[in-house]
Amino acid sequence: MPGLLLALVFMATIALLCTFRPAWGGETFEATWEDRVTGLPDLLPVFFIFLVVVGSIYAGIATPTEASALGIIASLLLSAWNRSLSVAMLNRAVDGTMRSAGMIMFVLIGAYYLNFALGISGFVDQINGFITSLPLPPVAILTVIIVIYLLLGCVLDGISMIVLTVPVTALAVVELGYDPVWFGIIIMLVIEAGMITPPIGINCYVVQGIRKGGSLNDVFIGILPFLVSILVVIALMVAFPEIALWLPGLFE
Questions:
Q1: Are 194 and 154 spatial neighbours (Cβ–Cβ below 8 Å)?
Q2: Which residues of the chain have pLDDT under 50?
Q3: Which of 11, 139, 208, 248 is deepest in the core (most CB within 10 A)?
Q4: 164 neighbors 123 (Cβ within 8 angstroms)
């Protein structure tokens, strides 16, 4: 349910931004309905990989990690079908993967060092103690927690934030009367939002490293619809917790 809501909000955000800021929509192309229909078969390879990866997860056949391996197998099958599978192509794919993985690992190493420094300094304990002692209503305290997670997401990776803060913040939020399942979903959305928040969102620099040329500002502009969509979904879930609790409630 939250994923569907996020997709709907994202599409609505894109439509609004392109309406008020046409230049943000990128270069436009004129196409007739005939061109659109005849171009649909070109989407089949992408749909096939999507079906293998996402379908295997939702069908309970594979975990997300296993689904990524299935996606690689599906890509190799498509390459063989198109007669583009060769040693040279595999070398290029492995080289690109190693470069991207190495860059991401350097970012994570830096994040873990910062994680260690924050942990031994007692910074996180002080932040959480400050939050729980605020003379504010529960919604206001929750808003403060969300803002802090957005700021932490700019300098820490998701695992570090979860390990450092959730054991304390989860207890504080449950004491405020919120559902722990709902808070878990909120945390994941806020962490992902923080990691793409300019100007120091970690994932923005990962994307820039993968790109060939272009300015970092292009990445910041490109992620704005995603960031706005996630923030809107977070606001809706705070205002209407049933959005996240409806499906789990069916299994009670």
A1: yes
A2: 1, 3
A3: 208
A4: no
Tell which residue, 118, 123, 136, has the closest CA to residue 172: 136
Question: Which one, of 132, 246, 92, lies nearest residue 179 by Cα?
Answer: 246
The per-residue pLDDT for range 123-158, each reduced to its tens digit, is 767 766 776 677 878 888 888 888 888 877 777 767
**Number of domains into which the chain is organized:** 2
Q: Are residues 139 and 164 in the same domain?
A: yes
DSSP at 217: H
Are 63 and 127 within one domain?
no
Rounded to an integer, what distance in angstroms lies between the CA atom of residue 45 and that of residue 79? 10
- Looking at the structure, do residues 243 and 195 belong to the same domain, yes or no? yes
Residues in the chain: 252
**Buried b vs exposed e over 197-206: b needs ≥16 C-beta within 10 Å?**
beeebbbbeb
Give residues with Cβ within 8 angstroms of 4, minimum separation 6.
none
Q: What is the pLDDT of residue 250?
A: 67
Query: CA nearest 186: which of 233, 223, 153, 144?
Result: 233
Phi, psi of 22 (to 5 degrees): -60, -30
Nearest C-alpha neighbor of 162 from the set 198, 188, 182, 201: 188
- Asked if 179 and 245 count as a contact pair (C-beta separation under 8 A), the reply is yes
Last residue of a domain, one of 17, 50, 85: 85
| pLDDT of the residue at 143 | 85
How many angstroms separate the first and last alpha carbons of the chain? 17
**Residue partners of 1: CB distance under 8 A and separation at least 6:** 243, 244, 246, 247
